[in-house]
Specification:
The protein is mostly helical. It has a domain at about 115-350. The protein is built from 12 helices and no strands. It has helices at about 15-20, 35-50, 55-75, 75-105, 115-145, 160-180, 185-190, 210-220, 230-250, 265-275, 290-295, 325-350. α4 packs parallel to α9. It binds zinc ion (2 copies). One zinc ion (ZN) binds near residues 177, 181 and 190. The site of one zinc ion has 5 residues, from α6.
């Protein structure tokens, strides 16, 4: 049985022990002082960013065209700034998640600054690089394909328009996730996301570029129904809110969010999705809403288990490292791993 098997019998729940009058049993966790200080500095920075927001907007607006290109800067700079704002909030929320992880950990043996987190942080750092590299071709491609004059939902109330495109985008994300689990070529890329054995706040951005680029473009398609001019910034903001939510569901947290689990993805349901056990393969594919999994019978109906996580491929780099050098090597290995497997498969079949 997995160490994180959650029958309340096998693991003492810190909050439960508190309720019975005994002192709470916090999970073992390592919190090296330099990291605590660095974390407090990040939080302080985020708080300043949020409090001084008007000045920050001016600062970013003046440098926006430099970072986001001429096309986006003309009309969409504000949403790009919002994106940065929401990232700041994501970092500011980190201490709350850390406290929650100590009180209700899904895996009590996992340290908060685990070897797995170091590699995920590097993946996190590669994400903005990807945006900068792809910015111009993406802008040109979107302009060429969708133009600016397509507004089929224009007559509907704004709330209805947003709801339609967000639901449609979330369904496409569910379907694309299904494909990335069931089509071997796509699975080799998506497998990198599943190779983490220590799920943490930053695992949501452990995504191979070959895995996320197509998925992001597909998720964007419904937003073109709002017209590119409105659809693109709304998509950027929605994607960023999603990123924060995904950081929450990848955290080492023991919660299924009660009745909300029937509507949205939870840390428990997403842990099942990452499970190393064969019987959980291809389950809980939801992106934000869990309704698609209930509708298409891909929802695991056991809401109490917290299994160990891995993609199940012993050759796939697990993504844990103890030094930055080691983490860089793991990152490089993970980046080339899908290509190596596909080349080997192609050679074997020819
Ligand atoms: Zn997946
Ligand atoms: Zn995940």
């Amino acid at each position: 049985m997995s160490v994180t098997e959650s029958s309340s019998a096998s693991i003492s729940h810190p909050l439960k022990s508190n309720a019975t009058g005994a002192s709470p049993q916090l999970a073992p966790a390592s919190l090296p002082m330099p990291l605590v200080i660095a974390l407090l500095a990040v939080c302080f920075g985020c708080a300043v960013l949020v409090l001084q927001w008007d000045n920050v907007v001016q600062l970013f607006s003046s440098t926006c065209s430099e970072h986001f290109g001429e096309y986006l800067s003309a009309k969409r700079c504000g949403s790009a700034v919002n994106k940065i704002h929401i990232y700041a909030i994501a970092f500011a929320l980190l201490p709350l998640i850390m406290i929650a992880e100590r009180l209700i950990p899904a895996d009590p043996d996992q340290p908060q600054f685990s070897p797995g987190m170091l590699v995920d942080l590097l993946w996190f750092a590669t994400f903005p690089l990807l945006i900068i590299l792809l910015r111009t071709p993406l802008e040109d491609g979107l302009k060429a394909i969708f133009g600016e004059g397509f507004h089929p939902l224009e007559g509907l109330p704004v709330v209805a328009q947003f709801l339609i495109v967000i639901l449609a985008s979330d369904f496409i994300a569910w379907a694309s996730h299904w494909v990335r689990h069931h089509v071997p070529m796509f699975w080799e890329f998506h497998k990198i996301h599943h190779s983490q054995t220590q799920l943490n706040y930053f695992t949501s951005l452990r995504l191979h570029p070959g895995d996320q680029i197509v998925n992001t473009l597909l998720r964007f398609l419904p937003f073109t129904l709002l017209g590119l001019e409105i659809g693109l910034p709304i998509f950027l903001v929605w994607s960023t809110i999603l990123r924060i939510y995904e950081m929450f569901v990848h955290s080492n947290l023991r919660t299924n969010l009660g009745w909300l689990r029937y509507l949205i993805v939870t840390p428990q349901s997403h842990r099942i999705h990452h499970s190393e056990r064969e019987e959980h393969a291809g389950l809980n594919l939801g992106n934000f809403f869990s309704i698609w999994d209930f509708l298409f019978r891909t929802q695991c109906l056991d809401f109490k288990i917290y299994p160990k996580t891995h993609c199940g491929d012993p050759e796939c780099p697990t993504g844990t490292a103890r030094t930055v050098g080691e983490a860089l090597r793991v990152l490089a290995n993970e980046m080339i791993y899908p290509f190596r497997v596909l080349a080997r498969r192609w050679r074997a079949s020819s």
